Write the structure tokens for this entry.
Amino acid sequence: MKHFESLLSAIAATMLLAACSSTPDSTDSAGKAPTSTATPTAPPSTAGTAPAPASQVATVTIPPHKDPANPLFAERSVYFDYDDFSVKDKYNDMLARHGRYLQSQPALAIRVEGHADERGSAEYNLSLGQKRAESVLRALKIIGVADARMEAVSYGEERPRASGSDETAWSENRRADIAYRQ
């Protein structure tokens, strides 16, 4: 029994000393960290070792219409002149890009949201916004997008993009936006 107690004391003393041990201070007497003069070494050779395991991180693919770096995400608005709802030729390429994308993605559907500036009555602006949305819908239909995958809605003057009562703000608010539903 006495032998067991001495063994236990020796183990306890060893553990206590190990817990109290310290590592040398990495600063010199002036309080500065020592500078290294060692030259860098090349990484160890991997010859004859097993290859690293494949990454367990899943690859995430963002659909083009949700990717901020893609024109399908960034270019979705058709702007109109005052009291007008005809689509200008400068939007043909953008609409063609959306049309081709929709044709390649049969599960996707869109809503075209028509808007108007604050001038005019609420009823007039709702009607004008609807005409703008429907004109974009017609352009996409010509490209080949099926009617069943598109919807036109009007918000009139209720959802302005720009605040203010000048031509700069009004021109931003006279638009139709393509909104992907998925």
